[in-house]
Amino acid sequence: MNIVQKGHEFIQERSCLHFREHDPVALARQTNITYLYYTFSEVLESCCLKFYNKPRGRRLVLITPLCKLPAQAGHATLHAMGLHHEKKFGFRDNEAKAVMFPDKCAQRIDALKIFEETLDDLSLQIHSNGR
């Protein structure tokens, strides 16, 4: 399992989100669709990068050598999904919950409990690594 898959698993365990892999070429041919596209870089910089994300189409997720933990790959994924934060701070709680816990989620209560219990640990893992 690569770091992207581990990042997806990390998010899925703490939210109502589920990720599925698709052929990016087939997705690029479709209209009115938004998808995440992961690319790996050898540049030694944080994987917590702000990108301009189009409302539709391909959203780039850059995975760097400093992006070693599942929490860091998950963090980069959430940026590509539209969540942003100020430098040295985590995502805003209410914005993160709006993205990660849609109203129609069977496991919402259990996932929210795990999210709340691990939120502080997640912020420390992300923001103590070179930013």
* Average predicted confidence as pLDDT: 79
Helix content: 40-55%
Q: Strands across the major sheet, in which order? A: 1-2
* SS-based class: alpha+beta
Overall number of domains: 1
Biggest sheet statistics: 2 strands, parallel
Q: Whole-Å distance between the termini?
A: 26 Å
- How many beta-strand segments? 2
Overall form: globular
Fraction of residues in β-strands: 5-15%
Number of helices: 5
Give the topology string: H per helix, E per strand: HHEEHHH
Compute the CA-based radius of gyration.
14 Å
Low-confidence stretches: none
InterPro entries: MetalloPept_cat_dom_sf (IPR024079), Peptidase_M12A (IPR001506)
Pfam family, one: Astacin
Domain Peptidase M12A: 3-93
Cofactor: Zn(2+)
How would you explain this protein's 3D organization?
Its cofactor is Zn(2+). It comes from Diatraea saccharalis. Pfam families: Astacin. The chain has 131 residues and is α+β, with helices and mostly antiparallel strands. It has one domain. Helix content is 43%, strand content 11%. Strands 1-2 form a two-stranded parallel sheet. α1 packs across α3. The longest helix has 20 residues. The chain starts with a helix and ends with a helix. The model has no long low-confidence stretch (mean pLDDT 79).
Summarize the entry for a quick read.
InterPro entries: MetalloPept_cat_dom_sf, Peptidase_M12A. The chain is α+β, with helices and mostly antiparallel strands and 131 residues long.
